[in-house]
Design a protein that fits this description.
The protein has 4 domains: 250 residues, Orthogonal Bundle (Hypothetical protein af1432); 248 residues, Rossmann fold (3-Layer(aba) Sandwich), CATH 3.40.50.300; 236 residues, P-loop containing nucleotide triphosphate hydrolases (Rossmann fold, 3-Layer(aba) Sandwich), CATH 3.40.50.300; 102 residues, no CATH class. The radius of gyration is 30 Å and the shape is globular. The strands form 7 sheets. It has a 9-stranded mixed beta sheet with strand order 6-5-7-4-8-9-3-10-11, sandwiched between helices. A 7-stranded mixed beta sheet has the order 14-17-13-18-19-12-22, with helices on both faces. Helix content is 39%, strand content 15%. By secondary structure, it is of the alpha/beta class.
Length: 936
């Protein structure tokens, strides 16, 4: 039995009762193989093709058909009783054709077809192509894991023979392999000789992605109306037809190789309105001779143009190194939203004659106005066309967000993307389809901003990510305003380890002081000093203020009086609080001092934090940007673009949202005491932009820091909220290094301040015994916690690129993504934060659920929501991490109708009464129009 009965084996079938239409297995194997071949020829970067071919020990010419062939074999295990008999109509056809069938029903879940592929393919590869036996088994495991988890050795041994099939089933599988090899044109005189972990994970990702595309019925419709039609199929004609369909699919995904991106561009071409400063000139010079791949760490004060330097360098690395695309990783959703617009503005002129796919990757990306505008442009792009030559020229070129890539796990596949660092860190956590994320990052330049913002757990994961990116041939650019020496060295060594040069040590250059650029290549780790520009060289005055809140509304608020006096001539100030609760309280306390409406028509006093509903938070972010943003700039909203207009006098109360990458500029800043590097980061929003004049008294940047509420025998006592957010040892050392200062010279004093907080020095002997005791106690707790956090990362991450052992160990302990109701031990955590839960707030109006308190827009929870309604529900969501209410909320289930929605399935529902209140256990939630969600 061989090729003559291959048409009877099916891969996909009609779900319409009584409809005999199906897609023969050989057709599906061809579909996926051809998608992989088009990806090899027209999607994968030259860098990825080079390293995959080298890993296989083949030329690129021979590697292409081999990879397409191996990818097509992913579903070979469907040629088994366990799979074929899940369709009742196939029973009699297979029996009549001589396939032995089991006497008892089979449970297909006990014998997954991917595992059957992994178990049966190696023997065929050895017999047909004389592959090394160990390599064949490794390839079988990689290909068989296309549904997200590599089958384990004992899984393959435990499969019942009756479910796998013997005799004619073995013959049929071997025949399918031969026929697929014949159609694809696999060179038998040049066969793979090996495959390392990076190449194996990249191949696994390619197989999954090709299978997703090749399984789309709209692209590859069923080839057989019934078994009789299948028996007369001409597979060579089908091959030619499927080849064209695969090419069209890639074109409509805006995934084809760029012509414009193949040549490097000058900095002046990419940013014609910017005259390069010393930092950007240094990056331009470095780019000329930088080997591929490499890591570049840029450390410079806020406002030095690090973003433009990074985008130029990424563009150059892509063109020269044969990479394709860039992912920009940011610390938060808010910073991702703003960076998205900047990357879009760079891409539009850079690829003005081509369609470029740009994605925004975070949980609420669908609600971003700029991203939504790009999504709207893909409707025509992804629609089937009779004649591609008649495409709308407005669609045929430009920047779009292709719909296919917006599904979970696919975002990193897009050539260009902006999102949170979490999306990249998931690429080194044991999760289902972890290799798809690695495949998405392979051969792509990765820019990671605000590197100083990550704690021990995230930093440990970042080290493993850097090691994998180096092994995958992906250049990396790290940006930071404030990076401790030890941290820089650790990150550099992690990337060097991925280049298989772990013994590299930094070449000590005493002149390479901050600001600096550091680069890591196979030749070594080097640094050079870059002079700061005159615009960022300044002295920031330090003042200590009383930030204690009044105990009653009638009591005066000392900080309010000081701010009122300082802003009497006018000016824009920001008060940065360490917690949402404190921000809400400070806002209420300041209302008596700033009650009016500013000259821009907005309130003089405003509030911005993460506990507003999503739509309100975005509205407030946009309001902050258009009030305190760059002169002459514009802000994109759902209503269009709005010009930046600075009020004469205004005060913004905010949390750490304004600390990272939001391009805001204030005349005066008040901040709660935080670790010194973050205080400096916040100060980067002081006098950030050039202005013709500042208000009287605020001509020079002034930073007011709130004193600790209590100081006992020289030891500061920080409030519980601050110590819940920041490490007590870093807070103590920051207080000691800042307490006697009346100014900070930027950038000259930044390194000394950072090292004074983060290096391993002992407590100064000049401090009293009480302070020395507090130093030792908090240091010990810090070290214990750091060790614990690093251990937590080690139980979740994937093995090193060069680790030995079985490839299935990469996914053996896969943890759940985006599953807040799972215990943290079973979650793929990118951050070790207290448990949180996202909730949708609706109103209960006379027993009916509504989006608004008046009950005008009623919601039916019994019906699955449309995409439009899903977005509107998400707009009324907020993430809570308050320990008083999160455990209670996690005991409730999402509405049944939401469980099939990827965006809503983990959302809990809170029903508010007409006054905006709800009870959660012993606590009350109140949705306040001014304060956001308040826990009482």
């Amino acid at each position: 039995m061989g090729e003559q009965h291959n048409h009877l084996l099916w891969a996909k079938r009609s779900r319409v009762p009584g409809d005999p239409a199906y897609h023969p297995l050989l057709c599906h194997l061809l579909d996926v193989a051809l998608v992989a071949r088009v990806m090899w020829d027209d999607v994968l970067s030259p860098a990825v093709r080079r390293y995959l071919a080298a890993a296989f020990g083949l030329s690129e010419t021979d590697a292409g058909p081999w990879i397409a062939f191996l990818t097509g074999l992913h579903d070979l295990g469907k040629a088994s009783p366990a799979f074929q008999l899940t369709w009742t109509a196939a029973h009699s056809l297979l029996r009549d054709a001589g396939f032995p069938l089991p006497q008892r029903p089979l449970d297909p879940r006990a014998t997954p077809h991917g595992s059957v592929t992994a178990a049966t393919l190696p023997e065929i590869l050895v017999a047909e192509f004389q592959l090394d036996n160990q390599l064949a088994r490794r390839l079988g495991t990689v290909i068989g894991g296309h549904h997200g988890i590599f089958p384990r050795a004992h899984d393959l041994c435990d499969m019942p023979t009756v479910a796998v099939g013997r005799g004619p089933w073995n013959t049929a599988r071997a025949a399918l392999v031969r026929e697929l090899a014949s159609h694809i044109g696999v060179p038998r005189d040049a066969v793979p000789r090996g495959i390392d972990n990076p190449a194996a994970m990249t191949l696994a990702g390619l197989v999954s992605v090709a299978d997703w595309i090749g399984s789309d019925d709209l692209i590859f419709p069923f080839a057989a109306a019934d078994a009789a039609a299948a028996s007369s199929l001409d597979f060579r004609n089908y091959y030619r037809q499927a080849e064209g369909q695969a090419a069209q699919a890639m074109a409509r995904l805006a995934w084809l190789k760029s012509r414009a991106g193949a040549e490097p561009r000058a900095f002046s071409d990419l940013f014609p309105h910017i005259t390069p400063n010393a930092l950007q000139e240094a990056v331009i010079e470095l780019a000329r001779d930088l080997p591929h791949p490499s890591l570049v760490i840029v450390e410079a004060p806020m406002g030095e143009g690090k973003t433009e330097a990074a985008l130029f360098l990424a563009d150059h690395m892509n063109a020269v190194g044969g990479n394709r695309g860039t992912y920009v990783a940011m610390p938060t959703q808010a910073t991702s939203n703003q960076m998205f617009g900047r990357v879009r503005d760079y891409l539009i002129p850079r690829f003005d004659t081509e369609t470029v796919n740009l994605q925004l990757l975070h949980g609420h990306a669908a609600l971003n106005a700029e991203f939504a505008a790009l999504r709207q442009r893909t409707d025509a792009l992804l629609s089937p066309r009779e004649d591609d030559a008649d495409q709308d020229p407005e669609i045929a070129s430009g920047v779009v967000a292709a719909e296919w890539f917006t599904y979970r796990k696919r975002g990193l596949l897009s050539p260009f993307g902006v999102g949170t660092i979490d999306q990249a860190l998931l690429a080194v956590l044991q999760t289902r389809h972890v290799f798809v994320r690695l495949f998405g990052l392979a051969g792509k330049t990765v820019v990671i901003d605000e590197v100083h913002a990550y704690d021990t757990y995230m930093s440990t994961l970042l080290e493993r990510l850097l090691e994998w990116l180096a092994a995958l041939g992906s250049p990396v650019i790290l940006l930071s305003a404030t990076l401790p020496d030890a941290r820089r060295a650790t990150l550099a060594r992690a990337y060097a380890a991925g280049l298989d040069t772990p013994s590299l040590e930094p070449r000590t250059d005493p002149s390479a002081v901050y600001p600096r650029v550091t680069w890591v290549t196979r030749n070594g780790i080097n640094s050079r000093h870059v002079p700061a520009s005159a615009r960022t060289t300044r002295s920031v005055g330090i003042g200590w203020v009383d930030g204690r809140l009044p105990e009653t509304p009638e009591e005066p608020f000392p900080l309010g009086k000081q701010l009122e006096a300082a802003l009497e001539p006018g000016g824009c100030a920001v008060v940065v609080c360490n917690t949402v609760g404190r921000a809400q309280a400070v806002y209420q306390a300041l209302k008596r001092y700033f009650q009016g409406v500013a000259d821009d028509g907005e309130p003089e006093l405003d509030l911005l934090h993460a506990r507003f509903l999503v739509d309100e938070r975005q509205h407030r972010e946009q309001r902050a940007l258009r009030r305190f943003g760059k002169p002459g700039g514009v802000v994109t909203t759902e209503e269009g673009t709005i010009q930046v207009r600075r009020p004469k006098r205004a005060v913004l109360i905010a949390t750490q949202i304004v600390e990272q990458s939001l391009d805001l500029d204030f005349d005066l800043m008040v901040t709660d005491l935080a670790p010194a590097d973050l205080v400096l980061q916040r100060a980067g929003r002081l006098h950030r932009h050039r202005r013709d004049a500042r208000p009287r008294g605020l001509e020079v940047p002034r930073l007011w820091i709130c004193r600790p509420e209590h100081i006992t025998e020289g030891v500061p006592v920080f409030d519980h909220g601050t110590t819940a957010v920041y490490d007590a040892h870093a807070l103590l050392r920051s207080w000691l290094v800042l307490r006697d200062r009346d100014a900070i010279a930027i950038p000259d004093e930044i390194p000394d301040l950072i090292e004074a907080v983060y290096d391993d020095r002992p407590c100064p002997a000049t401090e009293p015994p009480t302070v020395r005791a507090a130093w030792e106690e908090t240091r010990q707790r810090y070290e214990e916690l750091a060790e614990k956090d690093a251990a937590e990362a080690a139980v979740r991450w994937i093995k090193r690129p060069g680790a030995g052992g079985f490839i299935w160990q990469m996914t053996a302990n896969a943890r759940a993504e985006d599953a807040p109701d799972f215990h943290q031990a079973h979650q793929a955590l990118t951050r070790l934060t207290p448990p949180s839960v996202s909730v949708v707030c609706l109103f209960d109006v006379d027993g009916r659920l509504a989006l608004d308190p008046a009950g005008r827009e009623v919601i039916d929870l019994s019906e699955p929501p449309s995409l439009n309604l899903t977005r509107r529900l998400l707009a009324r969501s907020v993430t809570l991490s308050d320990r008083r209410v999160v455990p209670e909320l996690l005991t409730t289930d999402p509405p049944t109708a939401w469980r099939e929605s990827a965006l809503l399935r983990h959302q809990r529902l809170i029903l508010l009464d007409s006054s905006g209140r709800a009870s959660v256990g012993k606590y009350a939630l109140r949705l306040d129009p001014e304060l956001g969600l308040v826990v009482e």
